[in-house]
Amino acid sequence: MELRDLENLIKTRRSIRKWKKDSVPEDPVLRAIEMATWAPNGGNHQNWKFIVVVNRDFIRRMADVVQSKVETITSWPEAAPFGEEVDRWKRNGSFFRNAPVCIAVLMANYESLADQILKLRIAKDPSVRSIIEARQLGNSGLQSVAAAISYLLLVLHAQGLGGTWMTGPLLAKAEIEELLNIPKGLNLVALVSVGLPDESPTKTRKPVSEVVGFQRSG
Question: pTM for this structure?
Answer without folding.
Answer: 0.93
